[in-house]
Structures are given as C-alpha cells and as structure tokens.
Amino acid sequence: MKKPNKTALISCSNAQPRANSEKLTVLKTTLSSLGLLPVFGDCIYEKESVFSGTAKERAESLMSFYRDPEIRAIFDISGGDIANEILPYLDYDVIAKSSAVFWGYSDLTTVINAIFTKTGKQSVLYQVRNLISLHAQEQKANFSASFLEGKPDLFSFRYEMIQKDSMEGTVVGGNIRCLLKLAGTPYWPDMNGKILLLESLGGLVPQMTAYLNQLKQMGVFEQINGILLGTFTKMEEEKAYPSMPELVKRYAGKELPIAKTNEIGHNTNAKAIVIGQKMNFTKFS
C-alpha cells in the first residue's frame, strides 16, 4: 500500500487570527482532496498579540516535523514580521539530514535563506494558501502536477531579460524587506555568483530606494551574477515612478543582468521557485 503524502502546516511568523479557522479547514480539506495527509503544528493561532507561541515553541513546532521521517513537505501558512526570531533555536544539523522540504513566502524568506546558508538545503518560495485563493483551480492543477507527478507546472514561469542577455547562478533571496533582516547575521547567504530574487507586497519608491541602497552599500551588486525581479504589488498597483526595474538599474548599474517575471511574488496566481537551485535565464529572440 502506498504511503500517504504526509505534510505539515505551521506558522513561524505572525499567528493566524482565530477568524481564519474556517479558511484553514478549507485548506486542509483541499490538500486532502489532492491526496495529501496534512497535519497542523502546535503553534498556529494567536495566543498573545501576534504570537502563536514563543520563539522557542514555534521553532520546536517546526523541528518536530523535520524530525518526522514521514513528513514530505512543511507548508508555512503565515507571513508578517516575526519569523526571524526562531532562527537561533533551529537545529540545522537535523534540518540538513531531513528529507522534508520547507515551503513559505514573504517573511519566511528569513527562514528559507537561513536554511540554505546553514545547510545548503533547498526550500520553496510559495504560499500554499494560494490553493484556496482567487486562482484556486489553476493553482491546484499546477500544484498537483508538480507535487504529486513531478512535472514542472508550478515551477515554470515566464520572464524577460530587461538588461543583458543571460545570467546563471544559484537562486537566493525572496521578499526584499524580509531578506534584509538577515544582513549582519550568520544567516545572510553568500551572494557570490548568485541570482538574487527580489519581490515585495508593500512599499513604494522611498522604501525600495532604501532597500536597494542597503544592498549596494553591502557590496551585493558586485558579488551576484544577476537579479530576478518578481512582482512588487503596491508599486505596480499604484504605477509608482520610477518603477522598480528603473530603480534597480539605477542602483545596481548597467552591467548586471536583470530579468523580470510577473509570476513570482505575493499575487494569488504566483508560481513557485526553489531557493538554492541553480538556474539559467536567457533572452528569447
């Protein structure tokens, strides 16, 4: 008899409001309908303010799933601001040996890049709540094809080279604001030869200018092989000027390859991307 695809649902960042319990039940039902066996962690809902538990408790909730040999994937359903407080309490040796793969986005950029930095282990930048979103049918079809059948559907996204013709390297990064929380810590990824993925939900020109100049002053643009820009939701909704691609060209310079995709980020139709995977981007004629 085939073993079930046992998966975990956790919340390492801001806790889920109790009002979201019905949605999470729908998510659990949806995952079950796709042939998965979802299990909720101990730290999901608000207990005190934005916390579903202490940093140690949330870290232990995550580690309990990494220690479970039956767990295939760990889906973080949270986002917000506080995921980085669990980083000192994770057992990276256990994570490195586990076959479980971590999935999350937004503030979980901190956890995903810390795992890669400490272990070299790949994780997936994707929010599983997309399966019950506005684009649920498309998301479920893509997810099922990739997760259950090994097809590229969920990970295949369109892009265009907007500066230079090609770039190649291992992908790191994610949400620009959250990634920068790792600056100056032991969890900051080695940027040499990497493709830096950047995306954001909020923020306009002042915030993006600050983030990009921090990256510039850290020497990141001199170390990486290129930049992959995902969606910048608020910037794009408000048609901010200068646009994010224009700002990136201004601060990263004219020699660094840059690609843009509208299919990675916070939008509910977003595709997934593997952080820690080597990728090649080429201009299409």
Question: What is the beta-strand fraction?
Answer: 15-25%
What is the succession of H and E elements?
A: EHEHEHEHEHEEHEHHEHHEEE
Provide the spatial order of strands within the biggest beta sheet: 2-1-3-4-5-11
- Mean pLDDT across all amino acids: 96
Gyration radius, in Å = 18 Å
The CATH homologous superfamily of the largest domain corresponds to: Murein tetrapeptidase LD-carboxypeptidase, N-terminal domain
Query: How many domains, as an integer?
Result: 2
Number of strands: 12
- Main sheet characteristics: 6 strands, mixed
Q: Terminal Cα separation, in Å?
A: 49 Å
- Contiguous uncertain segments of 5+ residues: none
Shape: globular
- Helix-and-strand structural type: alpha/beta
**Helix content percent band:** 25-40%
Instruction: Tell me what the CATH architecture of the largest domain is.
Output: 3-Layer(aba) Sandwich
Kindly report the CATH topology of the largest domain: Rossmann fold
Would you write up a description of this structure?
This protein has two domains: 5-152, Rossmann fold (3-Layer(aba) Sandwich); 157-282, 3-Layer(bba) Sandwich (Glucose Oxidase, domain 1), CATH 3.50.30.60. Helices cover 32% and strands 22% of the residues. It has ten helices and twelve strands. It has a six-stranded mixed β-sheet. Strands 6-10-9-8-7-12 form a six-stranded mixed β-sheet. The longest helix is centred in the middle third of the chain and has 14 residues, at 136-149. The protein starts with a strand and ends with a strand. 44% of the residues are buried.
